[in-house]
Amino acid sequence: MWKMEKKLFLEILNTAKQLYPKEFLCFLGGNKQKEEINEFIFIPNKANENSVYFLEQAIPFDETIIGTIHSHSNTNYKPSKADKKIFQKYPINIIISFPFGEKNYKAYNQKSEEISIKLIQ
Ligand SMILES: [Zn+2]
User: Fold this and answer.
1) Positive or negative, the Cα torsion across 59, 60, 61, 64?
2) CA 56 / ligand 1 centre spacing (Å)
3) Which pLDDT value is given to residue 12?
4) CA distance 54 to 91
5) What's the predicted TM-score (pTM) here?
6) Ligand 1 centre from 74 Cα, in Å?
7) How does pLDDT run across 58-69, given as a tens digit for each residue?
8) How far is CA 4 from CA 39, 62, 108, in A?
9) What is the spatial distance between Cα 121 and Cα 112, in angstroms, rounded to a whole number?
10) What domains are there in the chain, each with its CATH number?
């Protein structure tokens, strides 16, 4: 099961809160074999209340990038068509939703199926 430090997750939630009502997206760094998420990586993007645009070329080509996390400015955790397209590239993808509390998230695999992640202290 994928694991992430709770401290790191809270940092991401805080960032999403600050940027609200704009959506927010960043990449997750970690170890695919160990299923560990241990950092988040920003790339330049343009965001509004409904979406985040970024240049695909801006994504660092790096083995340590193992997933994505992005916010929805509503209370919907369902991946959009565009979300599913990005999810295909990474084994772990997280959607966080308003109001960005500790439980306001869902995680998805490459096939956009819901999976569990474990927040560790
Ligand atoms: Zn989305």
Assistant:
1) negative
2) 16
3) 94
4) 20
5) 0.91
6) 10
7) 777 777 899 999
8) 9, 19, 14
9) 27
10) 2-52+64-120 (3.40.140.10)
CA of 83 to the centre of ligand 1 (A): 5
CB within 8 Å of 17: residues ≥ 6 apart: 99, 100
Beta-carbon contacts of 70 under 8 Å, excluding residues fewer than 6 positions away, are 23, 24, 25, 26, 52, 83, 94, 95, 96
Phi-psi region of 16 (alpha: psi -120 to 50; beta: other; left: phi over 0): alpha
CA atoms within 13 A on the CB side of 117: 31
Beta strands per DSSP E along the chain: 2-5, 25-31, 36-41, 46-47, 52-53, 65-72, 92-97, 105-108, 114-115, 117-120
Angle ∠(21,25,31) on CA atoms, nearest 5? 150
